[in-house]
Hints:
Layout: H1 3-6, H2 9-12, H3 18-50, H4 58-82, H5 84-104, H6 108-136, H7 140-171, H8 176-179, H9 181-195, H10 212-233, H11 241-261, H12 277-307, H13 312-318, H14 320-340, H15 342-360, H16 369-394, H17 404-439, H18 444-473, H19 480-503
Amino acid sequence: MTDAAVGSDDLIGPDPRRWRALGVLALVQFMLILDVTVVNVALPDIQRGLGFSRGGLVWVVDGYTLTAGGLLLLGGRLADLLGRKRLFLGGVALFTVASIMSGAAQDPGLLVASRFLQGAGEAMASPAAFGLVALLFANARERATALGIFGGVAGLGGTFGPVVSGLLLKTGTWRWIFFVNVPVALVAGVLVYLWVDESRAQQRPTGGRPDYLGAVLVTAGLSGVVYGLIQAGENHPWGSARVLVPFLVGLAVVVAFVFLEARIADPLVPLKFFRNRTRVAANITTLFFSAPFFVGFFLLTLYLEEVQHWSPLKTGLAYLPFGLSIGIAIGIGSALVTKVGIKPLMLIGFVLVGVGALLFARIGVADDYAGVILPAMIVSGLGSGLSFMGFGNSAVHQVSREDASLATGVQNSLQQIGGSIGLAVLASIALRHTAGKIAAGADPAHAAVDGYQLAYIVGAVIVFVGALVLLVLMEHVFPEDQSSHESETESEAESEAESEAATG
């Protein structure tokens, strides 16, 4: 099915398989995001089993998120040009192979390398899936609900990662957190092949090939920046070569990427893509949201297992209220988004997430799950669910059908990049603060808690700053605005094509 065919839904009626297809695509997205957090509960077991250093352990998470973040832009563009269904199935296949490699890894290097491959698989599959969802639902209200469900289920994947990990560790080894992906991916791949038609954009007027060099530069540059931050987290001085060299080299490569994108004919993201204030606001604030969101799981898991000495199963089950709160907020957001608009929901969500981070900062050495952690989870979960609803709709606000998957690639890329940098920075803050306290003679448990508290407070500040950016930049829009713009976009494209033909 081409985009032209999709655009004729009003004449031939909506695809009767669209809700079933949404369920399968959302399941895959659940699995992809699950793999960001599913390793958190298993990190102590992985560290003991493969001999990771404390700082090197961060790469089990960041190896995945950095690769996904760096390549999602390319994945989104390839999905639009080569076919969204084709790239989705290819990404799922790569993710499956990498999951088998991760589960079978016998040393730290192989596990990190396979996590990089998993990230590449997500970079292919995730934007293609989101683009397919956006095009399956032509009706604005249906699309708003579908995108909210899709984004919310992805958020639940991040939430239930610790639960799944705890259950698997109880019955087996940490290797099963990777092997369990295999049957899910195989079944989902078959169903998408049967239920979803192919869709692709028309070839770009420039006829240029996708910007592979740009994708390599942004991934390598961000990896260097994060590696430098991780070295600082391992208590190397900020001015040391081990911190500054990778950080500055990575920063230089990122600058080279920006320089390249501004000068080539067919960049990963055309500059006109950033003319829409709603999309730009959503893209920027994703960085402020994802940093504390991802690091919260990492630090809380370490706190529960290393300070409170909880079992992996108990730690995983402790996250259930967070997932339930997200689910409730998604339901509320789905009912309200077409009535109150995107911006109010996101503002409320950001404020709740920030308040939740401050509540998490109240943790202490004494075990007080009901009085401290549970309220923080509920507040953060409600805020996260509302935010996911907003991100899902604002990311594709007034996007032409040509760029449906690219829009998702930009949004998901910034989410992964924000999570990676946030994890490196906030984890470094926590670990360095803890090391300083221990060096001064503090009890290790109290020192660790002090470090976690500081990281949560910094995370709260980051989210509140994101709320201010959202308040200033984002326009007050409704999902219905998307459908009215599509015809305008198509008319503009036709006019441009006629003008170019006349000029030629």
